[in-house]
Design brief:
This protein starts with 12 loop residues before the first strand and ends with a helix. The chain is of the alpha+beta class. It is globular, with a radius of gyration of 22 Å. The chain contains 12 helices and 21 strands. The chain has 2 domains: 75-268, 2-Layer Sandwich (Beta Polymerase, domain 2); 270-389. A hairpin with a 2-residue loop joins strand 2 and strand 3 (37-43).
């Protein structure tokens, strides 16, 4: 059981302060409203239904703390079937936890003297769990450890709203003075070195519920099975919890969740290959999500795992979601197209015409390269040429 001082989470039944005790409603989602704040949506009978674009009953952060909790919702781990939960072996566990505990240097300036302090992803995760939230290592770090590769960066997913995490980090930052901010374009919170800002310590995002097109933002909740729809590939959708809140058993401190049910088997085959199976797009999504899903698939196929990819799933992707992704990219303006091309390829592989053309050829998208991607390079080459005159 959670303690009375623990934060209210999605699925909890709550009662607004100074209202009758029969005024219970269920917290169904929350959104980020900027400046560290957000809105919790509460659904109560037919009178307080929550719908896209219209929230008739809402709780503005941090007023949620004043609400009374009658009953708790399901733990995130209980929202998945048993066959979608497993553990890391000892070698994998040591490799991933060692990476998380490895200290990052934080550059500080004190009275014109520069010195450095150390902080680890593990330390940040510990503070999040101590505040009453769940947090998981997500994406590439888990994938790499399971394949026996060294992890390169840390992405976290959790139940803490951006506003609450900002409070946690502000308190930590009084001692370490790292910098953090919410990137509203990518719907993620970045924590970086306070002087060398290109040194990203980690990225964090709450579990996603659905896309709210009218407000151009996500609704978040605490259900891994819903969040997985916003991951690009099944092999990047795994969630690992090395640290859990007090209500969990010791065994659950080494819990690996596979919300798609196929991420683990796509990670590796007997020959060391990998299956890049794109997660099916949800009904409503921002165009940038669809465009970046295609571009990231091209990066993984051509650069990350050259000659190791089972392309049968790419063929299925062509049949199902490729058209949506191509159209989403076509609908972006020139600057957005360039931005998302660079974001998809930036990790050690700066995007250029030759690289992207080769990536498209790998998966049989030569015509799409000529029609959609090549004009972007041509457009900005003309701009740079004009600026140089």
């Amino acid at each position: 059981m959670r303690q009375i001082q623990d934060p209210i989470l999605c699925g909890d039944k709550v009662c607004p302060p100074q209202e009758p005790q029969d005024s219970w409603g269920e917290v169904v989602s929350f959104t980020y409203e900027g400046e560290g704040g957000g809105v919790f949506a509460v659904e109560r009978d037919d009178r307080f239904q929550v719908a896209f674009g219209k929230v008739e009953k809402s709780i503005t952060h941090p007023d949620i703390k004043a609400y009374k909790r009658r009953s708790e919702g399901k733990k995130p781990t209980d929202r998945l079937d048993a066959d979608r939960k497993s553990t890391l072996n000892e070698k994998q566990k040591r490799a991933l936890e060692g990476f998380l505990q490895e200290a990052n240097s934080i550059a500080l300036r004190e009275r014109r003297k520069e010195y450095r302090r150390k902080i680890s992803v593990w330390t940040i995760m510990s503070h999040i769990t101590e505040a009453g939230y769940d947090v998981w290592v997500a994406g590439g770090a888990v994938r790499d450890v399971l394949r026996g590769d060294p992890p390169n960066d840390a992405d976290l997913a959790g139940t803490a709203p951006f506003g609450s995490l900002c409070e946690i980090l502000t308190e930590m930052g009084q001692k370490l003075r790292f910098e953090f901010w919410v990137n509203e374009d990518k719907h993620v919170l970045h924590i970086v070195d306070s002087i060398i800002r290109s040194n990203t310590i980690l990225d964090y995002a709450p579990l996603k519920h659905s896309w709210y097109p009218e407000g151009k933002r996500f609704r978040f909740d605490h259900d891994p099975s819903r969040d997985v729809r916003w991951r690009d590939l099944t092999v990047n959708s795994l969630l690992y919890a090395p640290l859990r809140r007090g209500e969990y058993s010791v065994e659950e401190n080494n819990l690996l969740m596979d919300p798609t049910g196929r991420g683990l088997r796509d990670i590796s085959d007997n020959t060391g290959g990998i299956t890049l199976h794109p997660v099916e797009l949800p009904e409503s999504y921002p165009p940038e999500i669809a465009a970046s899903r295609l571009l990231r698939l091209l990066r993984f196929v051509h650069f990350k795992y050259p000659n190791k990819v089972d392309l049968s799933c790419v063929t299925k992707f062509k049949d199902k979601d490729l058209g949506k992704c191509l159209q989403a990219f076509a609908d972006l303006d020139w600057e957005a197209k360039q931005k998302w091309m660079e974001k998809a390829f930036y990790k050690g592989h700066p995007v250029d015409a030759q690289s992207l053309e080769a990536a498209c050829a790998t998966v049989g998208l030569q015509n799409e390269y000529v029609r959609l991607f090549k004009p972007v390079f041509h457009h900005f080459d003309i701009i740079r040429s004009d600026e140089g005159k």
